[in-house]
Amino acid sequence: MQAFTLTQPSNIQSAVAAASEPQTKYIAGGTDLLQLAKDDIETPRQLVDLEPLPMSGIHAGPNGLRLEALARMSDVAAHPAVVHGWPVLSQALLASASPQIRNMATVGGNLLQRTRCGYFRDTGFACNKRVPGSGCPAINGENRMHAILGVSDHCIATNPGDMAVAMMVLDAELELIGRNGTRKVAIGDFHRLPADTPHIETILRPGELITGIAIPASAAARRSGYLKVRDRASFEFAVVSAAVALDMDGGTIRSARVAAGGVGTKPWRLPEVEAALTGKPARAATLQEAAGRAGEGAKTTAMNAFKLVLLRRAVLRALQTVAA
Amino acid sequence: MDELITRREVMVVAAGGMALSQAPAHGADRASDASEKQTSDVPVSLRVNGRALTLHVDQRTSLLDALREYAGLTGTKKGCDRGACGACTVHLDGRRVISCLTLASRCQGKDITTIEGLANGDQLHPVQAAFIEHDGLQCGYCTPGQIMSAAALIKEGHAGSDPEIREWMSGNICRCGAYPNIIAAIRHASRGA
Question: What is the CATH number of the domain that holds B148?
């Protein structure tokens, strides 16, 4: 691990000022950053410690939920208001990592966790995400776990998140602060497609910090759920996952929100499925037909073509569960 | 029996008689690459198993290495050192965490409980006793982490059923596969807890 200094700021402004120095990273839970630092994939010279900042509150009200960025994954998952009002979020968090890691990791940091692509995480290989322009051995290599949506000729690494997928169906909005002030960005606009710059993963500017996540309350949020399909029962990243939120009027779907994990280079919304559900009765045939549309534009490899089939089945199962 | 030298004392002597306290027993986990820029050690004051402790550690030192190499508390085990196995599980301010991905220098003023601090004097913690009774181990390397995780799980209220115990123990891997007896031990301990 490369040597670094640890800066402990007294407030957000001094944190942002420190983070605008070169080769600087914020550290919150540290569960991904320290893994990457141990393997020399991240090589910061300075870490700005967010722990001293009072930014871990969970505020739930009739109009919505606001998570401060340092809220722990375990605390958000177990919060009674989240369990009741935003079940897809609680379920996605509980399906993430392990109990110990959820006690450490923060919701802000979770949005920034980096891909589990084995080539990215091994400095013995080329990787356009780690060393821009060095190549992508995954495209013709071991790519069973890689993305089928949003891929480019430069990168097919999967975004590994669960929580962000749930947030895609909840219209979450991120609150950011940087040297030039604050701004808000929708969760769907936060992660970038790899295109020809896979090393730039989000719209965050240098030194910019996530301070909070705002999630509106809605009938669909209350009727929501998360299904995660893994290679083992627990403590594993998704092969495929599906998040569903339905606004129902009796037996009719007024509107639907559907997103998927494990398949995209970023958390992936499925508007083709949503459109096929809007205004339709929640009958078996309707759900089946809609789920069958999932993955429009998918580009598969020989090893990960199964993901398109699995995606449609996972979406169907999640729809059936939430509609029931 | 009291005069017998322990296996670990033999190993420490063999390694050159280095003192366990406040200095690393060996240098492997410190900044081993001489070409890297060295940072000076930083002081960190912790409470470990109820005892105040001030260690001088390299900024990069994990809580795991600080406990094992600086504080001489080798009960906490290093498995993967990447957060994937749970062998290094300790309680930090009452919550279970993995110490391999915790920086010691960020633990200033924190309260840490390791496997060495779980028993009440000579009286084993109910989870420790249950692991012995149910033979919840084979090689034993993952056991301190399993027990620390299990003790936390029971306090959290996640021991309601075997499937619930399995799910909430998923952060602790046992490569011997002693899972059936681990589950039995936790189930047993949770009834008395």
Answer: 1.10.150.120
